[in-house]
Amino acid sequence: MKKPLIALAILALASCAKPYGPVANTLNDQLTKPDPSKHQTKIKVLRVPQFRDSLFNLCTFDFSVDGKLVAFLKQNNYVTVYLDNGMHYLSYTYSCDEGRPYAQKVLEVITNGMPQEYSTKIGAFGHLFMWRTS
């Protein structure tokens, strides 16, 4: 009885220990590739590792910029976008909580040419969080 529990615990901890990596596929090349002819800001958005969803990693954060879907972030994934300087809206939804009134997090950001980094996570009761880390 102890062996299956120990194996499950090791599997859970190992899945949390994966290094950060870029998202496998992006959906909007206009936002994920820099345009040297424009004044743009590099923004990196990271989904932090959590015990929730760590075993199967099936649910994604569906990340958008100004209402345009950019990527599906799994745990330990990040996406880098290049935005024209000015005001923008970063948002994400949790794919396994569709239809809930607080299932979308929107953050207004002002880009000014200085690189920015944001982290995202889901709380214990399903609330979505996004904050600037640098």
Walk me through what this model shows.
The protein has 134 residues and is mostly beta strands. The chain contains two helices and nine strands, in the order H-E-H-E-E-E-E-E-E-E-E. The strands form two sheets. A five-stranded mixed β-sheet has the order 1-5-2-8-9. The model has no long low-confidence stretch (mean pLDDT 85).
Features:
134 residues; 9 strands; five-stranded mixed sheet; elongated; mainly beta; 2 helices; single chain; four-stranded antiparallel sheet
Helix content: 10-25%
Outline, from the CA principal axes? elongated
What is the typical, i.e. mean, pLDDT?
Answer: 85
How many whole angstroms does the radius of gyration measure? 16 Å
Query: Span from first to last CA?
Result: 46 Å
SSE string, helices as H and strands as E: HEHEEEEEEEE
Beta-strand fraction estimate: 35-45%
Largest sheet: 5 strands, mixed
**Strand arrangement, major sheet:** 1-5-2-8-9
Count of extended strands? 9
- Treating each run of at least 4 consecutive H or I residues as one helix, how many helices? 2
Secondary structural class:
mainly beta
Spans of at least 5 consecutive residues whose pLDDT stays below 50 are none
